[in-house]
Amino acid sequence: MPDYTASPAPTVPATADDEQLRLLAVELAEAAAAHVRARRPQVFAADGPVDGAVTTKGHVTDPVTVVDTESEQLIRGLLAERRPADAILGEEGGGDVGATAAGAITWVVDPIDGTVNFLYGLPGYAVSVAAVRDGQPVAGAVVDVAAATTYSAVRGGGARSVRADGTVTTLACATEDSLDVALVGTGFAYGRARRASQARVLTEVLPRIRDIRRLGAAAMDLCHVAAGRLDAYYEHGLNAWDWAAGALIAAEAGAVVRVPAVTVGGAEGELTVVAAPGVADALTTVLERAGAFTPLPD
User: Fold this and answer.
1) Which of 163, 192, 212, 280 gives the lowest tally of CB atoms within 10 Å of its CB?
2) What is the pLDDT of residue 51?
3) 78 or 10, which is more confident?
4) CA–CA separation, 36 vs 23, rounded Å?
5) Under a CB-based contact definition with an 8 Å cutoff, are residues 109 and 131 in contact?
6) From the centroid of its chain, how far is CA 67?
């Protein structure tokens, strides 16, 4: 098995400085989400997207929109004003999370997680922002754009959600202890070869659980585990921007979290697994038997 980090919620209380990072992550993610929400009807009219609004990267099935780029630029601009010394790793603008000095903060940003959903107008896309120190997320926020719900956490301080009407909920993952009746989320890659391997793993997992869900945005899936709407989630080939905020939120809600190092790129194909404690061991066993801990490079 690769060298994963197992991350249940820590017992050390959150610091005031890290709480300020959480508040800033919320501010950044909500500002970007408001921009994304406003721009979609402008960019995607009834007769299709405006010219030049959508391109692809890596695979023809992997879209990037002008709104992805705008959202990340907005976040980078706000960080340049608020914390100009911090590094940034963004899905569109790049960066190097491994190049920062000990104790320094790198902001890990997914300007739209679930771009395919965004492209098609399906309500399952989010903005994800995490503050990472020494390879570990210490604060983060994920905003469900369509629902205008913000999920956030600070390391050692728990996780919460805030709905558009201001309702605040302390997040806690599910208490299910039988994998047979667990609802499990997953995702699939853009490359055909990795998809085929993921399908083979799925044939081993599906008969041993209640059902599978493929919702299309890893950051949101991790928040669904945190909120108890999914019992577990696994996927190969996530990048740090896909999981940094959501994995922290899930861990602070009580989930068992196994993720690659933040320096590991999605092309290496390592596995992310996030599960409620009652089903984590059983799911790990099933995934091991299915060979899922073998990376699936793109």
Assistant:
1) 192
2) 82
3) 78
4) 20
5) no
6) 18
